[in-house]
Amino acid sequence: MDRRLADFNGIMKETDEIYGNIARRLGLSDGEFWILYTLRTETEPLTQTQLGDVLHLPKQTIHSALKKLEVQGLVAMAYAHDRRSKRVRLTEQGEAFARDTVDRVLVMEQEALRGWSEEEHAALMELLRRYADRLRGQMDAL
To answer: Distance of CA 3 to CAs 7, 10, 12, 77, Å?
Structure first.
């Protein structure tokens, strides 16, 4: 079991490192990259809180990355239905930037999955979901 756990954790860390390297090559922090990625792939604008929930990142990380992206003119924020939350959207400049960066990563990801059957993909997603659910369930023991 120890070897399997080490293998699994190694692959997860390697994947995180790959995405971190991608972000740096694009001139972005990890948080900035994932915010742009999420805004590009979601169909509706999200609030800062929703971004944090989707990305599983702390509020401060989301806030700091959004401020930097806003200063660069890549995102704009506007109050949603109440004054407590702001919706985040890509600006025209942000859309163009995302086409040149995030869209290239999406193509890379699609290429990496090319050749997988639906069954293989479904099995991987099911196993990863079960692992995350079981691990989350064990947190109470801490």
So the answer is: 6, 10, 14, 46
Query: How far is C-alpha 82 from the chain's CA centre?
Result: 26
pTM above 0.70, yes or no: yes
The DSSP 8-state label assigned to residue 140 in this structure reads: G
- Please report how many Cα atoms fall inside a 13 Å half-sphere around the Cα of residue 44, on the Cβ side: 5
CB 63 within 8 A of CB 71: no
Tokens of 39: 């805004």
Q: Comparing C-alpha atoms, which of 46, 47, 49 is closest to residue 58?
A: 49
**What pLDDT is attached to residue 141?**
83
Q: How far apart are CA 133 and CA 40, in angstroms?
A: 27
Element (H, E) at 15: helix 2-25
